[in-house]
Design goal:
The protein has 216 residues and is α+β, with helices and mostly antiparallel strands. The chain contains 7 helices and 10 strands. Strands 1, 2, 5, 6, 7, 8, 9 and 10 form an 8-stranded mixed sheet that branches. Strands 3-4 form a two-stranded antiparallel sheet. α2 packs across α4, α3 packs across α4 and α3 (42-51) packs across α7 (199-209). Residues 1-13 have low confidence and may be disordered.
Length: 216
């Protein structure tokens, strides 16, 4: 049933980043969410389109598991920071290209970042229209090829700029905005610290605005 619903989700394309929703993580987290359940009710689990994860799809997985949403702890179910469960959502962009940035040159609106030395920057899909909050500029990092790189300058509507520090980043290379810290990826908690938003607010907005796709 869940695979049928997955096919209805929008495919990646254009400049939208992709919010990957892990079915295996949700299934693994569900018993933990039951054990930690607060009895706050099904409305909590399904609020804001199941915290951006897709209410219809989440309901189908829980039904397949024979579980009622009412007794579940939603933060544990979706693997939010502090729950000690695996994150269900991760956010991925892709590199559109790179260019050299000379010492003293600025990037993005208002030149809030100027290169302290000669470097290379990459233009990456994903901006504030898809939930990459503007205050992440000059603060947050992304993961490219297992290495962390800082977002520099102001985040634009559909793209942002990342200082790749001379790393070779071919067009189309995957960029991880946030994911599982166990894999070395930036976490939603880092975004919460940088923006002042809660983890729940961040995933709810990203899940609605990015291209949401269910993975295994």
């Amino acid at each position: 049933m869940s695979s049928t619903l997955s096919a209805r989700l929008p495919a990646a394309g254009g400049v939208s980043p992709v919010a990957r929703i892990s079915e295996s993580a949700l299934r693994r987290n569900a018993p933990l969410a039951l054990a930690a359940g607060t009895g706050s009710g099904a409305d909590d689990v399904f609020a804001a389109d199941a915290w951006g994860h897709g209410a219809e799809w989440v309901a189908s997985v829980l039904s397949d598991l024979g579980m009622d949403a009412a007794p579940l702890d939603a933060a544990v179910l979706f693997g939010l920071p502090g729950s000690h469960a695996r994150p269900v959502m991760s956010l991925h962009g892709r590199a559109l290209g790179t260019k050299p940035l000379l010492r003293g040159e600025g990037v993005s609106y208002g030149y809030t970042h100027r290169a302290p030395r000669d470097t290379t920057v990459a233009l990456v899909t994903g901006g504030y229209a898809q939930g990459v909050v503007r205050s992440l500029g000059n603060t947050a990092t992304v993961s490219i090829g297992g290495r962390r790189h800082r977002i520099v300058g102001r985040v634009a509507m559909d793209v942002c700029v990342v200082d790749v520090e001379g790393q070779t980043v071919p067009r189309g290379t995957e960029v991880v905005y946030f994911g599982d810290p166990a894999d070395g990826h930036p976490s939603v908690e880092e975004w919460a610290d940088a923006t002042g938003l809660s983890a729940a607010e961040i995933v709810a907005v990203v899940g609605v605005r990015a291209d949401r796709r269910v993975t295994g």
